[in-house]
Amino acid sequence: MNFILENVKYRQILDIPYLSLTGPGVTCIVGESGSGKTTLLKLLNNLISPDQGQVLYNEVNLEALDPIQLRRQVIMFPQNPSIFPGSIQDNLHLGLEFAGKPLPSVTELNHALDLANLEKPLEAGVEELSGGEQQRLALARLFLLEPEVLLLDEPSSALDDATEVLVLNSINDFAQSREITLIMVTHSKAVANKYAETIITIHNGQVVRNQEVAVRG
């Protein structure tokens, strides 16, 4: 997997002459609020298009790709993911139906909940879930899709510290076990230092540092 940004400008938010993101592995994007981190993720998912320059995915310009097919391979997890009325199982099924994938077994559904550290029965209604639990449900839904690339925008923002560690460990283990590329925006340097193989620092819309991190034992 490879993303390349060439001479990319977007409004007054981003100005990136060149950036290469290569997987599999974990890349963390860090920077102050308003620096352009989330905008960069949206460009990679073709939710927005650059005003200038091009974004390539596996050497193909995103503008030449079917956006629906792209988003089945490159899935973005926003800060406030959508949760639909109904049960936990309904929400897990809806994600797969939207992606055109077959429905998994109950065992597979429960395994996805375990990965997201959500200890709730499949028949439980989503109205019973806290904000953090709803975010973990959305993560479980994402795990079932098994994309090539996960784009995560502050995936633990609604979680307490203890649950954050559990969820981030699960995301990291999931990505590594399936050789999925993980590109994660985080405000936390501690999170970046713990999980990232590459740390990209953005300041005022520009990449000011692209650092490979030593492989951990």
Short description:
The protein is built from 7 helices and 10 strands. It has 217 residues and is an alpha/beta fold. Strand 9 and strand 10 (206-212) form a beta hairpin.
Straight-line distance between termini: 24 Å
Supply the CATH superfamily name.
P-loop containing nucleotide triphosphate hydrolases
The largest pleated sheet is described as:
6 strands, mixed
Give the helix proportion (percent range).
Answer: 25-40%
Structural class label: alpha/beta
The amount of beta strand, in percent, is 25-35%
Overall geometry comes to globular
Helix segment tally: 7
- Total strand count, please? 10
- Return the string of H and E elements: EEEHEEHEHHHEHEHEE
- Count of separate structural domains: 1
Which spans of ≥5 residues are poorly predicted at pLDDT below 50? none
Order of neighbouring strands in the sheet with most strands: 6-7-8-3-9-10
User: What number is the mean pLDDT?
Assistant: 91
CATH class: Alpha Beta
- Reported CATH architecture: 3-Layer(aba) Sandwich
